């Protein structure tokens, strides 16, 4: 057995979701919406599978989807991408991340990781033989600092894996943070593998700034997106990769030996969806913002200390004011005694550096959130 995988514990998402299933708890842990997703996009996929092409599509992705991705990013983010040489379709963003890391990182290369982080980053870097260098971000603001970056970057730095908006913190990096990161990437000749799957799930009038669009980053960035997150269809696993041609040629070679291609009916439906008007996308984020506000207000009324959510499906609470210092134990007690599943944010740190933050998913129906709040009231009363 490869010890890298044999010794990795079961992901916290599966653990908490399993406990929710076993106990009948309300699952506010794993990040998926209650809503089935836009009906017209789903119907487009159904029509394409019945009446369209169902054999191997192009390894790089259907031309119609690659063109739609380039047009979408030109409209929303001001990027000028060549659909034929700078855009690729993958079977989800995690495959895109795996392909990028395996294609770019050689044994002994150092890779800067910002924690808390998506739990796939670290094992993928180690699988490639990379040496992780951590930048540990602290609540409640989770900001970058020049001092922290200076400790992590070195002449051996090959790449950084960067997530913005950041899961699990539900924060968005400022223009100053992004400029600081770009400066370090240029200074140390590092490639930014930028996980931007939450780019459309941003609130309060914010607009996403891609790393690829920053000064000096056009030829040293890999931009990764997700149709599943854009359309609230998390099970579709359709990812987008954008990079300059010299990088893309290598990424494509890694992709061909991972999944090779992605279901063509889903690609056709995503191409259709990306071309929808602005009101559609604003409506999706508006609905999620309303759920965020409803759940935030409910938590604050109960007495929880809520860390504001700027994007993603998530918001966090600080459990220290409740007299709690172990988020894993807190979440286990929450699901077993109070019937609500959440995620301990320490699971997103390599060494559990922060243990007082707990993440909830608010991308749920009102009745689900209200039922969760009713059960959460019990833990506040107990703490009091």
TrEMBL record:
Cofactor dependency: pyridoxal 5'-phosphate
Gene3D superfamilies assigned to the protein according to its UniProt record, in alphabetical order: Aspartate Aminotransferase, domain 1, Type I PLP-dependent aspartate aminotransferase-like (Major domain)
Reactions catalysed: L-aspartate + 2-oxoglutarate = oxaloacetate + L-glutamate
InterPro entries registered for this protein in UniProt: Aminotransferase_I/II_large, Kynurenine-oxoglutarate_AT, PyrdxlP-dep_Trfase, PyrdxlP-dep_Trfase_major, PyrdxlP-dep_Trfase_small
Membrane-crossing segments per the record: none
Keywords from the named record: Aminotransferase, Pyridoxal phosphate, Transferase
Sections of the chain in a coiled coil: none
EC number: 2.6.1.1
SUPFAM superfamilies (alphabetical): PLP-dependent transferases (SSF53383)
Domain of life: Bacteria
Name this polypeptide is given: 8-amino-7-oxononanoate synthase
Lineage: Bacteria, Pseudomonadati, Pseudomonadota, Alphaproteobacteria, Hyphomicrobiales
